[in-house]
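User: Hi! I'm working on a homework problem where we have to compare a predicted structure to a textbook description. Could you give me the structure for the chain below?
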Amino acid sequence: DKLCYCAICLYVAGVLQVSGIRIYTSGDMEAVNGTDVRLKCTFQTSSPINPDAVTISWTFRPLKPGREESVFHYQQKPYPPPEGIFRKRVSWAGDVMGRDASIILQQVKFTYNGTYVCQVKNPPDVHGTVGEIRLRVVTTASFSELLLLALAIGGGITAVVFLLIIIVSCRRCKKGRQREQGGNVEAPRKERKDPTAW
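Assistant: Happy to help. Predicted structure tokens:
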């Protein structure tokens, strides 16, 4: 009996492990006050995706003690929140068949600082992890973001300058060769003989 019970336990554990939904998010994020930010959430499921049955829910936990708030809900179609701090500030950016449950927060405010939880259910695959994103709304872009931006711009400018130098050098080389091949080669001079010389 004990052996049979253990076998059943292992089987159930295996089924639950296989059928658990896995959710992937971007973890920690920064966004500049007043800008739009994409909260990326993708998922893996062992069951075939049924677009009519999939449910996606996003909730928000503020940094300061406070109640958890609904941010967004999806079931067959997007349902933005009818009230609260996210009213008219959330749009659907996902694709259920593409296993994408992402949303966009528009014109983020400092009150949006906190943790965003993404949960996906694809019956019968309804158990599994949840995805969390910790968002920090800042006044200006952080030094690391500015540095990356500067490097990207600097790299682009350097590439353009380098390309121009190559083009100019090639043109000069061509002109130089044309001059060499052109009529610059002097005809051999005929020596004049001095009639008085013996």
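For your comparison, note the following. The longest strand covers residues 55-62. The helical segments are 2-19, 143-181. Good luck with the assignment!
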